[in-house]
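Appendix C reproduces, verbatim, an entry submitted by the partner laboratory led by Prof. M.T., so that reviewers can inspect both the input and the predicted structure.
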Amino acid sequence: MAETVVYQPGSLEDFDRLYRESYARVLRTLLGVLRDRPAAEECVQEAFVRAFKAWPRWRPDAPVEAWLHRIALNAALSYRRREKLRTLGQTIRHLGHQAESIAARDPAESAELLSALRRLPPRQAAVLLLRFSHGYTNREIAASLGVAESTIASRLAVAKTRLRRELEGVAQLTEATVR
């Protein structure tokens, strides 16, 4: 992650700055989790409302954006429960800049990767996105999700293994089709 920015809890100016500087990243994360742009935008707005209400009580013991991601992910999980979404969704292609750059390099590989990510459970997709799209450490991801750091390590391991299996299955299917 970039250099640490200092924020003063309760400062309206700092909250405005936090909103401007982190909105796009939080939205990309929720797009990856919810796979639906309108739902992600709704949850991001809800997250910022919740964060604003809690802003005077925020303590800088964790990075502010990790705190914000935790609120946003909780809003997204609540949304999914309320809406009882049946699928992981369709907006993985809207993951943001990194996904677009992968697609620009090799469209076939990126389509396979994005399709495989779509098939992961939301919590596994979330840890992969926070790590590889945002570059968060296990500690930052743990703070975002409100779980133990060791839980993140195990979720990442399981998610990577499952993603690898998904991608191998696609490769085997492609080979069988070519024959």
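The radius of gyration is 17 Å. Additional entries are available on request from the coordinating office.
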